[in-house]
Amino acid sequence: MKLLEGIKANNFVVFGRVGMDLYPEPHGTKTEDAKILQAGMGGSSANIAAGICKLGGSSALVTRVSDDSVGRYCVNQLKAYGVNANHVKPISGEYRNSLAVYESRIEDHQSVIYRNGAADFQMDIADVEAVNYSSFGALITAGTVFAAEPSRTATFHAFALAKKVGVPIIFDVDYRPYSWPSPKVASDVLSRAAADCDMIVANDEEFGFMAGSIDKGLSKARELSETTASIVVYKMGPLGAITFVNGEEIRTGIYPVNALKPTGAGDSFMAGLMTSLAEGHNLKTSLLRGSACASVTVSKPGCAPAMPDTNILETFLAEHPGPTSY
């Protein structure tokens, strides 16, 4: 199955963590001064899956959660967003769900992530072999699944199973140093994973990390588009993105907003990009719609709760003066 053909099925199997987010209210409150903490669903892969559903697509998440009230909260949240949670399995013992505490403010923003004994890293071969890959149009994963075993080996096995039935693989590199045993291991494994994928989305620092230095990141992205991947998106934060496809470079800007916090933008971008391509928009328009989703998300509290549905996205695009250009 070709990449765009798979995406147009608008039905995605997503690998990676789901977690609980806590953020102080009212907006602008420092965590150390908090009296009220609002709960919401988080975790990059879960956010992508939820964002896809909010925008009219279908998604299923494959991961492990802790066999406790927090794990059950995460499963309930997935279902509330319309995400298929049939492949989200509990694991007992001392394994725990991810917990993120972050602030709804830009200046001196603080994010604290708890990942000790992470339940999602316990996803194993049996978990990925239980998935019927031929029932999905494409596989999406965030890079954190590769940071530890048995999740790393299981995800590479999932890649092989997806490829066997012609399902394209979309990779959001999403490098989080705190999850990895060392930068060397992360660079080697993420580079290996990227070489297996049909579409790669990462920021300039992540491509630079895989290439060995930030100044080599753009060349790394271009090289991947010329050798293994059909589409490579090189994100540059406020400077927009450069997308490599079929020997061409597509430059797209951002939709400036008054940001409330920096978190959730990349996950929302991916959800908007996937569903827009699925709806038949061309690649440049889809990239811009993904950028609009990111802008909506950073302007509101929470991650999954802040991601737009179709009506919110269309209203934003109609009312915003337009993206920056570079």
Low-confidence stretches: none
Query: In CATH, what is the homologous superfamily?
Result: Ribokinase
At the third CATH level, what is the topology name? UDP-N-acetylmuramoyl-L-alanine:D-glutamate ligase
Q: Can you give the helix content as a percent range?
A: 25-40%
Helix/strand structural class: alpha/beta
Order of helices and strands: HEEEHEHEEEHEHEHEHHEEEHHH
The count of helical stretches stands at 11
Overall CATH class = Alpha Beta
Mean pLDDT metric? 96
Widest sheet: strand ordering: 5-4-1-8-9-10-11-12-13
CATH architecture: 3-Layer(aba) Sandwich
Task: Kindly provide the radius of gyration, computed on alpha-carbon positions and rounded to a whole number of angstroms.
Answer: 18 Å
Query: Between the first and last Cα atoms, what is the distance in angstroms?
Result: 34 Å
Q: Major sheet: size, sense and barrel closure? A: 9 strands, mixed
The total domain count is: 1
Q: How much β-strand is present in the residues?
A: 15-25%
Shape: globular
Please provide the count of β strands: 13
Oligomer status: single chain
